[in-house]
Amino acid sequence: MFRKIAAATCLLAVGSTATAQTQARPCITAAENEAVVAYVMPDLIGALENRCARVLPADAFLGTQSGALKGKLQPQSDRAWPKARKAAQRITGTPMPVEGPLANIAKKALAPTAALSIAQGFDAERCRIADRLLAELAPLPPENLARVMALFLELGSATSEEVPFRVCS
Known about the structure:
Oligomer: single chain
Structural class: mainly alpha
Largest sheet: 2 strands, parallel
């Protein structure tokens, strides 16, 4: 799951993996990494609900309690957008508008696009793991949940060339 989250962070910036792999992987800060995770999480949970519904039992966390988790994480997602936008710009090398209608379009489109891409790679086993992981992390405050997931992404970015960035000090 964490490799999928790491890989999808690339999509947050709507850049192609092939392009990212042929260029030097840019650095983002740990705070930007955390912001990217916080920004994507509510949409990722929604995408996993849809993807995993057919393979999880009716009483699974994804589908019974994940809606409350999405609601709990959404305010943090909104607050994380400015830093996540900066990270996406650094990853792709493409400026993103800060204000105006195009800025709003970017904010509303990037997380769902990344989340859908991540979720498409989930098979039944990954769905079960994601369900268990989210159930265990759900009681954490949103900030702590994002930090834990960001640490997994940081590990993935350090060990996988598929992640189009590195987390640097």
